[in-house]
Amino acid sequence: MTGSQKDALIEQLLKENAELKARLKKLERLLGMNSQNSSKPPSSDPPNAPKKSAPKRRKKRGAKKGHTPHLKEMLPPDMVNQSHVIEPEACPDCDGEHFVDSGEDPLRDQFIDVPPVKIHVTEYVRPVRKCTGCGAMVYAPLPENAPKSCFGPGVLALVAVLTGVLNVSKRKAMMVINEVFNPDISHVSTVLLLRDGLSSGKDGS
Length: 205
Prior knowledge:
single chain, 205 residues, mainly alpha, two-stranded antiparallel ribbon, elongated
């Protein structure tokens, strides 16, 4: 066998090898097809084909049967600020207008809200007097229980929660404070409030 014949034989074997590999891949792909990864019907699946999992059922919302309902608890009478008694004006069944006590407990509906915040201002007035002995101008010192800052502990606590606990930025904290106290606290007062609130928070940490 000459050299050229050997080269031709090797080329033919390589070509046949490539064709056999392509046919093998095609057969493997066909054998792996089933009703889940192709359009084939389930009846054509081989015995070892994976079974199609059943669809998961969505759980129904709400409490299960027999579960004790969580009813809204009424606040005690001492926490009610306003109470309105609404008597029926007419019977919805017969349009009657005369009623007597039924002995049943009344229906109660409570609505909770937060009233608008109104700041509480404490002012210390210290008259300036002139001493008759030496002519000096005299005024009394502030009492010991007077706040060290121009803002009380309630306002400083709000600033500490905003900037410390909730990690709100100074700009957003100013927006919240102006929204809560507006128009009672000016922009300049808010800046001082943030300064005093932040410094008091650091001292307490």
